[in-house]
Amino acid sequence: MEETGQLQDRLGRFLAARGVRGDVQDITPIVGGFSQITHRFTVSDRNMQHRYVLRCDRPGGAQLTTTDRALEFRVIKALNSVGAPVPKVHWADTNGAELGTPAMISDFVEGPNLLQAARSGHLPMAELADLATGAAAQIHRVDTAGFPAEIGTAGGDWGHYIDTQIQAWRDLAARQAEPMPVLRYLASWLDLHRPEPVPLCLVHGEYSTANLMLDPTGAVSVIDWEFAHIGDPRMDFGWCIQRGGKEPPNVLGDHLDLVCRRYRELTGMSESAMNPATVSYFAILSGWRAFGAVLDGISRFANGESNLLLSAYLVSPWSLACGEWLRITEALESAPRDEHSRAVAASAGERP
Amino acid sequence: MMSKPTTVQLVTAIRENLSAAILPAISDPGQQKLLAMIDHLMQTIAVRAEHEIDWMVTHNRAVVALAQDMVQAAEAPAPVIAALARYRENHSASLAASAVTADYALAAEVLATMLEATISDTGEFGLAARELLERDVAHGVQIVGEFELVPP
Fold first, then answer.
1. A308 to chain B nearest CA, in Å?
2. Is the ipTM of this complex over 0.90?
3. In CATH terms, is domain A114-347 a member of 3.90.1200.10?
4. CATH architecture of A4-107
5. How many CB pairs under 8 A join A and B?
6. Is A326 in Cβ contact with B137 (below 8 Å)?
């Protein structure tokens, strides 16, 4: 991203062209994300102040993932239109012609994210887990008629969806710089241990406590929709507990029984479909999406096509994730059905 | 050549100097995060310098031995036989890191085919292949050591 002064000028011109009056001030980077660059800024005039978030693509050489700001903008617009718990998005520069890089601007949520709230003791962990579960249920109930077709169609074929996810593991294995037995083992294991099907619906795709903002009213607002798609709703929980293992505390992973029970109450999903064992299956299955870009970056580094230090650094969370996934497979295979909860909870997200 | 100070000692000394002399002089949060990443990478280099040749050579031998047993027991499907043949044709006797790494990749393909062939059974070859995978992954975890994700 460019210098703050240049960005301030570009933002000023961009907003003025859309009839927004006032000075752009207090541009501050928001750290914490691995994919896009975000800045908070304020627009002030004599009568009002409004705070926004600018979400931009990283420069080409520093990109770890490649997602489409234009599609994300359309998805959030659609979410706004149905009243989903998502900050309002205002404008986008989808090709970067005005802001220097593809970007969009949303309302800033005045409050901590759930990860920060958990770390500060702002609210009891069980309450945070309950809030996260409730927000997930709200998202998964969204009627996606009128949403961008690129994210898929709700109510599709679950078996085909899972086939696609498992194939993504195999495709990932096939394009790495060296053969990776763990990828091929997990793909085969996932294929063999499919859980009970459930209806496909809108899935956030990167549901983690760092992407759940707690606004001043105590409501949850979900940010970062670049990986939204139509999928199995348990993917969001699976992602959240695998991410929580690397960014403790693991708010959902440490309360998995409670989370599953609450989600069943909110959605009517059966216990055989929504339980710690099935969620843990998705903690593995979602891994290709979590680590696909990471592994591709590592391979580019290994092949001499990149010198992005972040890619070398991310070998470590990848290695830890492999350990966690193997422990989950072992726990799911060895524990009798009624003991899955404890076995999985003990395995998911914990270090040896 | 001089083997001492060892690679591990050198890396450890570099880490200490980065931490004691360089880090306090940096005020930019982005540069501090970059230094934290570098420090973690140095930590992993120290572990790899000490162990990785031994780990990979031992792993390669164990994988090949298991595949050979599988072939002799007439339980190896074609992909395992083919991967084993590729290993035998292409592996090196050298202990240079690049040669061992290349052998490790050949052995990884042998292990992957064994794991895929035995995924749905609990026979001795499946269990042994799984154990080799777990040991290999555990080495990766050992390399990482203490870790907390530093966002960029």
1. 11
2. yes
3. yes
4. 2-Layer Sandwich (3.30)
5. 83
6. yes
